[in-house]
Amino acid sequence: MSKHSQNAISVYAPASMGNVGVGFDLLGAALAPIDGSLLGDKVSISAIATGVEFEQVGPWAHKLPTELTENIVYQCAEFFLDKLQTNTGVKLVLQKNLPVGSGLGSSASSVVAALYALNEHFDKPFDEQALLLLMGEFEGKISGSVHYDNVAPCYLGGMQLMLNTQDKVCAAIPSFKEWYWVVAYPGISLSTAKMRALLPEQYDKGVAIDFGRYLSAFVHASYQQDSKMAIEVLKDVMAEPYRAAAIPGYLDAREALTQLGMLTTGISGSGPTLFSVTDSLEKAQQAKEWLEQHYLTEQGGFAHVCQLDEQGTRRV
């Protein structure tokens, strides 16, 4: 039997923006509201004799399957125990703070928090890279294909570029410390699969070239810390043109945010959450207020002024 910690451990995994507009499936960033509130799921773990016990609480727990064995955190525990080949048991409690289908990496947050907690509890049998691969493998089971653009930043923090080379899943790229990322979730849920289905099967050669140019220029500008260039190329040619109209109120909001003087606006993940960037705290607060009045349509909608969460997943 492997060693495990006797005391309950609690782990927090931040919300994340997949794509970050310019980097479809290849860029992701973790979010931290500047007011110090935690925007992400928490998982706590403790030892029991055998098997898996599971409980779900929190503001969005009612949107999860009522059959506990269908919950991804429960499945994470089975998956992990199977990998470890251990017969010792665990009890997991998920505090579901992120809405499902929001474009904020909700399933990634649950998966990453659960696998991180399990790894801590069993005294870190997996190193960082191995654990990241497990997270990707598991998240792939859920969504049907392996994407790291939410999992990687959620786990490691900051802004992560997907490399998918033989030795490295991803690498952190420098971020702009002076930027504020205003994110707004309107309160409706959009299925990632449905939003993916809106994208064309094939892209025009010109679009492919623009995509490569904008993403490489954005990475270059990040390393040069050239904020003006980074904003100029932070454009989404892959997904936004096909998804924008399917997100209620998005086009109006983008227009209004431009009028307010925000530097650029995009879709977080596959939506309906949007992000808008500025280097002025005053403008960020104005944008948040505008979004709260005009973009949030359903109960449970919210807006936050964020910076990037450089810490990633951690014990709390």
UniProtKB/TrEMBL annotation:
Segments forming domain GHMP kinase N-terminal: 71-158
Subcellular location(s) per record: Cytoplasm
Protein's recorded name: Homoserine kinase
InterPro entries linked to this entry: GHMP_kinase_C_dom, GHMP_kinase_C_sf, GHMP_kinase_N_dom, GHMP_knse_ATP-bd_CS, Homoserine_kinase, Ribosomal_Su5_D2-typ_SF, Ribsml_uS5_D2-typ_fold_subgr
Domain of life where this protein originates: Bacteria
Residues covered by the GHMP kinase C-terminal domain: 240-293
Gene Ontology BP annotations: threonine biosynthetic process
Subcellular location, principal: cytoplasm
Residues binding ATP, per UniProt: 99-109
Keywords carried by this UniProt record: Amino-acid biosynthesis, ATP-binding, Cytoplasm, Kinase, Nucleotide-binding, Threonine biosynthesis, Transferase
One GO MF term attached to the UniProt entry: ATP binding
Organism expressing this protein natively: Shewanella gaetbuli
Pathway: Amino-acid biosynthesis; L-threonine biosynthesis; L-threonine from L-aspartate: step 4/5
Gene3D superfamilies per record: 3.30.230.10, GHMP kinase, C-terminal domain
A Pfam family: GHMP_kinases_N
Family the entry assigns: Belongs to the GHMP kinase family. Homoserine kinase subfamily.
Reactions listed under catalytic activity: L-homoserine + ATP = O-phospho-L-homoserine + ADP + H(+)
Reported function: Catalyzes the ATP-dependent phosphorylation of L-homoserine to L-homoserine phosphate.
Keyword field contains Membrane: no
